[in-house]
Amino acid sequence: MNSATQTLRPQLERARRAWRGSPLPGFLDWWGGELRALLPTRWQTLFSGGNVWCLLRHEDGQWRARCSGQPQTTAPWSDALDAPTQQAMLSTAVAGVDRQDLRLALCLPQEAVLRRRLLLPEAARDNLRQIGAFEMDRQTPFRPDQVYYDLRELPGPAPAGRIAAELVAVPRAAVDAKLEHLRNAGIAIDAVDLCEADKRLGVNLLPPEMARVHSDPRRRLNLILAGSAVLLLLLCLGQWLHNHQDALTDMQAQVDAMHGDAQKVSLLRKQLEDSAGASGFLARRKTESVAVVDVLQDLTTRIPEDTWLERFTVDSSGHVGMQGQSAKASSLIDVLQNSKLLTGANFQGVIQRDPATNKERFFMDAQLQKPGKAKPASSSSAGAAR
């Protein structure tokens, strides 16, 4: 046994005791039994599994073997037989047990074993074998190197802060001869125990260094199956994550598309608002300004026949400029004072006479009335501007 195994043994023993002390083993055994009972009889053997203990007893020079909890099935055989014959007799006794599940225990008679009941602190639960070696001198007349021993925790109530345990010990001289005989016969055992009726007590007096190591092919298969199950679980999780990632990508693409549509709608709304604003601006400008045609019609109606215009301008602020000739230009101010479209008519510069036409050349400016005040002339045109 290597040092790593010796180092891990206390932790493994602690885990085994915690497992055995929990209600899970009993529940799983009951549940597995109920499930196996539903299977066909031929299949029940395949799914039975677990260690099957075969108890070996040596009485009056003869060996007796039977599986724990089962009646005697074969006749005893003499320990004087040769090794192959004894192995064959043992094989016949355990013929119905799978070799991988078979465990052999050498059972000792009750009178050959020393048993002591102890009350120990709860902290001793994790180091029972070491506590057993320490208590050996106090509870028995032997030293630890003179006996095979084991210390087991007893079920049932115990004082607060303590556990009930039983120390089981047997002198090595009473067991070594039987162990040597079994080794010479080629029979390896897994435990040295006591028999209570047709069952073992549940201790193992063999020291850890003498325990038989079993190679369990099922363990490798179980590890492979467990690894495969974990791998399949990881693959399922990976597929689930991949599906969710694909769904998220699709949703993101849909959101991006909807975002693009929303931007287009926002752009169209802005264009519509701009168009509506421009239309409103034009409508307001139209309602706030006076049509040039109406101004020309009003001038045509008011100015006399001997007056004509050479230039007529209207700017964006409503300023009106007029340049022309008239037989009597000074009278134009009075003519335009009653206009409902123009206001503030006034001459700009000096009135001069044109030698070619013998008329007075003038330049006037005025301001258009606001639409609310301006009223287009309704009378028909009496003359045309020239």
UniProtKB/TrEMBL annotation:
<dbReference type="InterPro" id="IPR052534">
    <property type="entry name" value="Extracell_DNA_Util/SecSys_Comp"/>
</dbReference>
<feature type="compositionally biased region" description="Low complexity">
    <location>
        <begin position="370"/>
        <end position="386"/>
    </location>
</feature>
<dbReference type="InterPro" id="IPR007813">
    <property type="entry name" value="PilN"/>
</dbReference>
<protein>
    <submittedName>
        <fullName>PilN domain-containing protein</fullName>
    </submittedName>
</protein>
<keyword id="KW-0472">Membrane</keyword>
<feature type="transmembrane region" description="Helical">
    <location>
        <begin position="221"/>
        <end position="241"/>
    </location>
</feature>
<keyword id="KW-0812">Transmembrane</keyword>
<feature type="region of interest" description="Disordered">
    <location>
        <begin position="366"/>
        <end position="386"/>
    </location>
</feature>
<keyword id="KW-1133">Transmembrane helix</keyword>
<dbReference type="InterPro" id="IPR043129">
    <property type="entry name" value="ATPase_NBD"/>
</dbReference>
<dbReference type="Pfam" id="PF05137">
    <property type="entry name" value="PilN"/>
</dbReference>
